[in-house]
Amino acid sequence: MTRELPPLNALRAFEAAARLQSISLAAAELHVTHGAVSRQIRVLEEHLGTSLFGKEGRGVKLTDAGRRLRDTAFDVFERLRSTCTELRQAGDAPFVLGCPGSLLARWFIPRLDRLNRDLPELRLQLSASEGELDPQRGDVDATLCFATPPWPTGMRVNELAAERIGPVISPQHPRFAELAMLAPVQLMAEPLLHTASRPQAWPQWVQLNGLDSADLHPGQGFEHLYYLLEAAVAGLGIAIAPEQLVADDLAAGRLQAPWGFVETPARLCFSSRARNPDPRCARLLDWLAAELQR
């Protein structure tokens, strides 16, 4: 009798599809296409010489052989995940937090010295990313970002604060006194600074204020929110941003928010894997919650 195992990629694809009861959800979790998961399952079925899934309406259903393999595969992969987590912690590996660059630069880094003093054992490593952050990625232990529900499966999401966005302007702007007196509807006639990383920010603010986004007049654009806010601090125009990202600038008087902030459906979230979470997540989560209340 051969002791050869099936291809591990095929087993991994099958385990995810069987656990989630969906090829589409498995593809999303594994960051591959629906077709790639289907092909891996066919490879596994050919290797084993038996069908693992059968058709049920528009979806799929496990066969008896599929249910048997699912139970074994789930147990094996779960033990592997648990052991790898224990080994990383035993090896004193740093805790890697994924965070968008703008949030990292404008909120997290100014507080990093205090965090290192409060949690010296954490050995935090920050990973900047402008893309969709997903704690299922193998290179991060958790993520901190603004996101909008519903939350994906396989994630433990802790909502830390509501996102509030609003226009900001520097007192160094040559027309500051005049512009600060404008009503929101009058503000829309001004050339407004905007960013490609969040093109919906101004239209969303306009909608939340009951105005018509067709009246917007976009001005200078920037690739990232960080650059946008640096331009605003330099007095180049009116920008828009989440309140948390300009809180330090407002406190220091570098920016002002004469038009206030409005709440959006998004939340500042700390997200980690639902299964086998790193125990250090709880300590960092508590620290973040307390810091946001300062």
* CATH fold call of the largest domain: D-Maltodextrin-Binding Protein, domain 2
**In whole angstroms, how far apart are the ends?**
65 Å
What would you say the CATH architecture of the largest domain is?
3-Layer(aba) Sandwich
How many structural domains can be distinguished in the coordinates? 3
Structure description:
With 294 residues, the protein is of the alpha/beta class. The protein has 3 domains: 8-90, Orthogonal Bundle (Arc Repressor Mutant, subunit A), CATH 1.10.10.10; 95-158 and 268-292, Periplasmic binding protein-like II (D-Maltodextrin-Binding Protein, domain 2, 3-Layer(aba) Sandwich); 163-266, Periplasmic binding protein-like II (D-Maltodextrin-Binding Protein, domain 2). Helix content is 44%, strand content 22%. It contains 11 helices and 10 strands. The protein has helices spanning 8-20, 23-30, 34-48, 64-90, 101-118, 176-179, 184-187, 201-208, 225-233, 243-252, 280-292, and strands spanning 53-56, 59-62, 95-99, 124-128, 142-147, 155-168, 191-195, 217-222, 239-242, 262-273. It has a 6-stranded mixed β-sheet with strand order 4-3-5-10-6-9. Helix 8 links the parallel strand 7 (191-195) and strand 8 (217-222). The longest helix has 27 residues, at 64-90. The chain is elongated and about 80 Å long.
